[in-house]
Amino acid sequence: MKQLVILSGKGGTGKTSVAAALAHLASREMPIVLADADVDAANLELVLEPTRLEEHVFMGGQVAVIAPERCQLCGRCDQVCRFEAILPGEDTYRVDPLACEGCASCVYQCPEEAIRVEEQQAGLWFRSDTRFGPLFHAHLFAGQENSGRLVTMVKQQGRLLALDEGRELLIVDGPPGIGCPVISAIAGADLALLVTEPTVSGVHDLERILGTVHHFRVPALVLINKADLNPAQAAGIEAWCRAQGIELVGRLPYDQIVTEAMVQGQPVTAYQPEGAMAMTLREVWAEVQKRLGGTP
Amino acid sequence: MIIAVASGKGGTGKTTVATNLALSLADQAPLFLDCDVEEPNAALFLKPELIHQEEVGIPIPEVDFDRCTYCGRCAAVCVWHAIAIVGRKVLIFPELCHGCGSCTLNCPEGAIHEVLHVMGRLESGRAGSIAFGHGILNVGEAMAVPIIRQLKATHMAGAAHSVAILDAPPGTSCPVVETMRGADFVLLVTEPTPFGLHDLRLAVQVARDELRLPVGVVVNRDGVGDAGVDDYCAAEGLPTLMRIPLDRRIAEAISGGEALVEALPEYRPQFRQLYKRIAQEVAR
């Protein structure tokens, strides 16, 4: 079983639209599993029309809770908290659950033993069925920590099912950025497809995500979206990829057809199979498949 | 006034709106902080002269072995499992440490002191009258929040600026909350597509429902997609403070690193109007 992760660094370059298209194309040739690793803002389900089969609670970290009847207002908790999570009140100190990192430092320092930590539900994860294969996805509650752990959970479930049912490919739709959820999305991948755009931000962020992917020793391919928006920038990306020894697998046009397909809840390859966009994506899939076959 | 510019979904135009708002308010000498420390892009458009640089990270424990009795108290209190005692060895895992200092406070021998574990850097300078600062998370580091926290602490302690504009990262988790905390207003930039709408709902949950901050919406690439965002804003009573049409000229200008108000100066009064409307919303 192979694992492909789709990343970009910069948000909004088209990761999810590309993931949905590859899911559509791949599923015609082999049994696949999908994992949406953007647990903050999970959009893959919007173009896959899933049927939800299971819903599970995700317990995130913990938060401190102060028992008001015990609090003597000494302020020791506020002194030791490095996360500005303790709020002074008239009769008792209180904890801001969004700021609290659950380190329990205050728990040990409170002379009245008035503080305890409580496990918190930080989100939900789901197993769904789609016309292209099973989908694992999640919803991290607003403002929660531990998105990396939830990403790992979603991917593990996908992997287990793939191994169980002999499915050949796990496609992971990654989050933007380069931090904790991205690192979790990269873990265990055989190949990363980096979707960029020919803009100053796209180029800057491509360099950082490629650095991150290399840091974790995962081979990468680059796909330029909206390539004709700025041909000079696109040529710059091509030259840069050559210099880095990274294969450029395609150039998608700047075209509103992807949004039209999204409004219809469809991958662009299914919405307009004979368009330029779909044709290029079929070539991209062929390249990706070749590279996945070649990695040990 | 502190304005955080956020979105939920990436690539909707947060940085475009934030930088052009700052450029349009140059007469007020605003503070601009790029809090998207994983992918900081505002400098590409504001082109500040960066004069100050500082390494930042979190304090991690270091053990003084003359005093350590290997009692294991530090490992017992660490909820992150960032310290382990194995025989007569103390193992410290900086990538798991959150820098809370609980081990230092709990060591009965006073054998732990803390040293800086560098995770990134802060840079600051000026772009014309705009005071500029951004944070840059090092490649391979996981935690963005400590960088954002220190970026804000460094620049906002004195509160000498009448306007501060904070460019938030995408998403809805802890880095976004850290950016929004203490803001007077959250400006949510969206696009009228199913993805834009889905993520706008989540961003509203964070800003309005969890943090209880006043919010307003900028609809970018207006004309693409469907009516879902407008219907949602109307139903939720969210004010739409500005619309930027889907226009290839805008996309081309931005792709080359040009600021919108410089490429298409007719937008400058619109951004000034946006600021006025934000001020009215805050005053309500």
Secondary structure blueprint with pairings:
The complex is a heterodimer of chains A (296) and B (284).
Chain A: E1 2-7, H1 15-27, E2 32-36, E3 51-66, H2 76-80, E4 86-87, E5 94-95, H3 105-109, E6 115-130, E7 133-140, H4 147-165, E8 169-173, H5 180-186, E9 191-196, H6 200-215, E10 220-224, H7 231-244, E11 247-251, H8 257-263, H9 268-271, H10 276-294
Parallel strand pairs in A: 1-8, 1-9, 2-7, 2-8, 9-10, 10-11
Antiparallel strand pairs in A: 3-6, 4-5, 6-7
Helix pairs in contact in A: 1-10, 4-5
Chain B: E1 2-6, H1 14-24, E2 31-34, H2 42-46, E3 49-63, H3 73-77, E4 83-86, E5 89-92, H4 102-106, E6 112-127, E7 130-137, H5 145-156, E8 164-167, H6 174-180, E9 185-190, H7 194-210, E10 215-222, H8 228-236, E11 240-245, H9 248-255, H10 260-263, H11 268-283
Parallel strand pairs in B: 1-8, 1-9, 2-7, 2-8, 9-10, 10-11
Antiparallel strand pairs in B: 3-6, 4-5, 6-7
Helix pairs in contact in B: 1-11, 5-6
The CATH class label of the largest domain in chain A is Alpha Beta
CATH topology of the largest domain in chain B: Rossmann fold
Count the beta strands of chain A.
11
Name the strands of the widest sheet of chain A in spatial order.
3-6-7-2-8-1-9-10-11
The quaternary structure here is heterodimer
> Strand content of the residues of chain A, in percent?
25-35%
Please state the overall shape of chain B, judged from the principal axes of the Cα atoms.
Answer: elongated
Low-confidence stretches of chain B: none
Describe, in short, the structure shown:
Chain A is of the alpha/beta class and 296 residues long.
Would you give an account of this structure?
The complex is a heterodimer of chains A (296) and B (284). With 296 residues, chain A is an alpha/beta fold. Chain A folds into 2 domains: 2-49 and 131-294, 3-Layer(aba) Sandwich (Rossmann fold), CATH 3.40.50.300; 61-121, Alpha-Beta Plaits. Chain A has 10 helices and 11 strands. Chain A has helices at residues 15-27, 76-80, 105-109, 147-165, 180-186, 200-215, 231-244, 257-263, 268-271, 276-294; strands at 2-7, 32-36, 51-66, 86-87, 94-95, 115-130, 133-140, 169-173, 191-196, 220-224, 247-251. In chain A, a hairpin with a 6-residue loop joins strand 4 and strand 5 (94-95). The longest helix of chain A has 19 residues, at 147-165. Chain A is elongated and about 70 Å long. With 284 residues, chain B is of the alpha/beta class. Chain B has helices spanning 14-24, 42-46, 73-77, 102-106, 145-156, 174-180, 194-210, 228-236, 248-255, 260-263, 268-283, and strands spanning 2-6, 31-34, 49-63, 83-86, 89-92, 112-127, 130-137, 164-167, 185-190, 215-222, 240-245. In chain B, strands 3-6-7-2-8-1-9-10-11 form a 9-stranded mixed sheet, sandwiched between helices. In chain B, strands 4-5 form a two-stranded antiparallel ribbon. In chain B, helix 1 (14-24) crosses helix 11 (268-283) and helix 5 runs parallel beside helix 6. Chain B starts with a strand and ends with a helix. The mean pLDDT of chain B is 96.
